[in-house]
Amino acid sequence: MSCNDSKTLGPIPVWSNKTNNVWLFHPMAAPQSSAGVNFARPTIEVGQSSGAVKVRPVVRYSNDLQTWDAPVASDAANMTQTNDGVKYGAFTDIQGGAKNFLQWGVEVTDSSGTTTELAMVSLRVDTKA
């Protein structure tokens, strides 16, 4: 994905790990060069939710494609989608040039804390330099 670009990823099935507020990373795309990607605007759509799922868009970074930094949520408080629906983000500085590679994904948790929650997720990412 180059600067001033858009990409729609998914839908993919995602699930939680039965632990409230422990976020599980699901990659939505293959790793890509971070060159020229400084700002991103995510849009997330959740469907077929099992009921207590929480999903947020994230990006993670690497210099060598072997060791990855922890995923970084995009405006986590405002971009967390609970159950079915769509959330629209704003352009956020994602510091794309700080590492050589980035990978788009979502993190999933649940509010039940006792059951695995499931959903289908699509992610649209608009980027610019």
What attributes does this structure have?
3% helix; 129 residues; Jelly Rolls; 1 helix; six-stranded antiparallel β-sheet; mainly beta; five-stranded antiparallel β-sheet; globular
Q: Can you describe what's shown?
A:
It is a single chain. The chain has 1 helix and 11 strands; from the N terminus they run E-E-E-E-E-E-H-E-E-E-E-E. By secondary structure, the protein is mostly beta strands. It has one domain (5-128): Sandwich (Jelly Rolls). The strands form 2 sheets. Strands 2, 3, 5, 6, 7 and 10 form a 6-stranded antiparallel beta sheet that branches. Strands 1, 4, 8, 9 and 11 form a 5-stranded antiparallel beta sheet that branches. The radius of gyration is 14 Å and the shape is globular. The protein starts with a strand and ends with a strand. The mean pLDDT is 88.
Topology at a glance:
Layout: E1 5-15, E2 24-27, E3 32-33, E4 39-47, E5 53-62, E6 72-73, H1 76-79, E7 81-82, E8 85-88, E9 92-93, E10 101-110, E11 118-128
Antiparallel strand pairs: 1-11, 2-10, 3-10, 4-8, 4-9, 4-11, 5-6, 5-7, 5-10
Q: Class, according to the CATH hierarchy?
A: Mainly Beta
CATH T-level topology = Jelly Rolls
Helical residue percent band: under 10%
Low-confidence stretches: none
The gross shape turns out to be globular
Q: What's the number of domains?
A: 1
SS strand fraction: over 45%
How many helix segments?
Answer: 1
Class inferred from helices and paired strands: mainly beta
How does the major sheet shape up? Answer: 6 strands, antiparallel
- Terminal-residue CA separation: 11 Å
What would CATH call the architecture? Answer: Sandwich
Q: What would the average pLDDT be, to the nearest integer? A: 88
Strand/helix succession: EEEEEEHEEEEE
Instruction: Count the E strands.
Output: 11
